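Reopening this one. Same input as before:
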Amino acid sequence: MDLADVALFRMIAVSGSLSAAARQLGLTPMAVSRRLAALEAQVGARLFHRTTRVLSLTPEGEAFLPYAGTLLETQDQALATLASGDSGLTGVLKVTAPNVIGHSIVVPTAAELMNENPSLKVDLTLTDGVVDIAASGLDIAIRVAPLQASNLIATRLADNPRVLCASPAYIRKFGKPFTTGDLTGHSCLLLHGMDDWPFVIDGKLQRVPVSGRFATSTVDAIRAACISGSGLALMTYWDVWNELDLGRLERIELADAVPDELGIWGILPSRSYTPPRVRALTVALKKRLSAAALRHTA
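Same output, byte for byte:
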């Protein structure tokens, strides 16, 4: 069985179309179709339902997908084992991360790893949405969220407390809230679907309703609006650490509540083998996050 065709099958399953897989691989749709047909002939089953408008996995395709991942993982493990220790990290490091932390933390960390390892490649997907890393063939997902029970492996990379903040200009004009009750008198910057903010009050997690004139779908936009003086924002520390450092935003502490705390996690598929490039990334991210936190608190 040609593992390149197995990788092609998985890419088609993830992208949802032959043409999308063809674009990513630099092939023609006809070539992709022929290679898929050859794989189906080898396994003795039709892997996709194909019409002019819809492409979907057959029951046989759904059953084969996890085995395809295992085959490709085993190939990666074998190549990593045979590679010379002097050549450094090799292969393609496939990562997904949120936009803000992706730009400020993951990109420079990945660049540093590539500088140190000429044979290493990085494929980074930046999105604030949750990606199915197993189905997408990703090595690791960097996530900022409460950790949910799953069959995935999680490594805590750093603490990530939420921070209530505003720009100096906003504070000069409207003052600071002193309690959660004062938030009703302020313009709060809202993410879509999040019209209440989580605080720990008297030792219990409570959600405090807030409102404002500006709502958006991305953390990037919330941060930009907050810097411009449009209102208060409740963001995670690693979304605003640099702005706090530079004085572009100021932290606001309330007398009756503390914002709920999150963490930054490295999420791996449930695998028996973790490639050296993934281990190296998690170590480098922990080091960068720790150094930045020490610099800000010094």
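So the earlier flakiness isn't reproducible anymore. For the record, Residues 15 and 24 are 9 Å apart (CA to CA).
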